[in-house]
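Below is just one:
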Amino acid sequence: MTEKKYIYQAMFLLDNEEVRKGFNAAKDWIQSSLEKHGLEVKVLRLWGERQLAYPIGGRKRATYLLGWLEGSGDMVNEVRRELYLIGPAFRCLFLQEDAIPEEELVYGIQKMEDSELIIPEEFQEPDFEEPYEEPEEEQAAKDEPKEEKAEKPNSAEKTEEVKTDG
């Protein structure tokens, strides 16, 4: 029995450190992993280098690789498991689609020189906190003298009393 094949749009978030070593090496690794698990790669291309919506594993930016594939759901599950364990992709998403758009098929497996892609260095934000300012109500409450405090002895005075009486 043959498994039913579907068309998938896939997005891979590549670690910029790996892409700086070579975009083609990272792309080729993804492609070979997909093919090793039986997926037919129709399109695999650079989508861009962008800031992440939120930090993932200390990363604030990633290089996005867009793919269009054909294969079964089991094949996708196997490659996803592998991609999360090893390799340059730290996130991946597979969406089942009806067809590959014609404008995407034009790209095919993208070839480009590594020197064409410039990945910016991670920007380190300064480590400082805004100074805390108390709300006006709390400041006013602190400035008012407390009558109760003057009437009650503090804990040190209580200790003295106990020592003298005993």
Summary: The mean pLDDT is 82. DSSP finds seven helices and four strands in the chain. The two ends are 93 Å apart (CA to CA). The first helix runs from residue 16 to 21.
